[in-house]
């Protein structure tokens, strides 16, 4: 018989072994023709031929090179997320630590200096000048709030609260803990507005027409807020303490599994870069708060066991387990959010540069806010309630009696001041490096615009790109000059297309860069 060269063959009645080319030119199998003699060739529909085709067929990935390259880059991005995320978390942790240590170390000294300045002013040569600078007024307000709230916390019995919580069932405690987490976020959101309103009401220029209810009502609201928020955090610490001291650790396991429920509520939602920045700041704040709560739990347990080192080794495995679950949940959540929303791992470097910009800008001569208040607005971390609770727990756990004890307290305070200064110096140096890498240095020299009569000034950072070249800046420790705090203003946006013009809604949310992202004012709003 004769043979046609090819792949698929079929022997016809004329004794010719026919061949067809593959893939066929015609989609109809009945129209398959031999490439040599143009005879019709119909493949034999046998099982053996089908199995042979399945085992020997091939494919070429290079035909879709772009798709597979993108998939490989996604894998590499997920592998980079833990490292980049932890860099941001560590930097943010030390930012929160710096603001937290400020309350214990430099704030009392600033309050003493402000009171000394107030007492030494001559009463006859005041003229029309202020008695105190705005920053000094805010420091005195913070000091008074701390003293009053600490005095009110003496009427709250921690032991009674602990035993009251311990008598509840596991499921009820689980529900209570979830409710406390939601309440903590709501308190932080509204509490920063209360404190900002108090600071502005107390330092507002006298020549302006005031439309506020007065300094005293705002001060009373701020005191009650800090007191209630401190009690809320105390209940959280008591619930965590009950979980640590339970025999079967079931409550602690349930509370840790609650962190993984957070993945379900976050991973499958659409996130943009600014929304992810908000969530990253919230994760930094929650992680730092968890560390302080664990410290409170350890202090209370060590006090009950007479500061025995053996009991500390009993607590450490549970502490490490809680910390490991927090880190694992954050890594998994951010890895899948960046994967589903096609966000690169380099975005965390931009977030770190934005936080560094806040640190440097608050040390400029024309700074509009204190550093701790800037951290509170950006991350939602308000150090005053947490500081009040920690002072209350430490004072009830440690007995200070005798000259030696007071000497130890003085040495401990000096150590905290040293830690605060060293932490601030390192953070400031790192922040300068991060800002320089992001080319954001020239924004440090731009002054906020003054408001025209009857008009509201626009945000100076709202329409600037996050990368512009410039030179470095040095920190200034002098008193800031009074400036007008800019606020964003809704505008009418004109849309120009292919020969068509239209006016969109006037109250549409404007596009913001990372420097405009406030932790609370746009929380929950979709950023275009």
From TrEMBL:
Signal peptide: none annotated. The keyword Lipid biosynthesis does not apply. It is a multi-pass membrane protein. Keywords: Chondrogenesis, Membrane, Osteogenesis, Transmembrane, Transmembrane helix. GO terms for cellular component: ciliary basal body; endoplasmic reticulum membrane. InterPro entries: Tatp1. Residues 446-510 are annotated as: Disordered. It is found in: Membrane. One of its GO terms (biological process) is cartilage development. The keyword Ligase does not apply. Residues 465-489 have a biased composition (Low complexity). Its main location: membrane. It holds the Pfam family DUF747. The chain crosses the membrane at residues 88-105, 144-165, 215-235, 313-332, 381-398, 404-428. It comes from the Eukaryota. Belongs to the TAPT1 family. This is Transmembrane anterior posterior transformation 1.
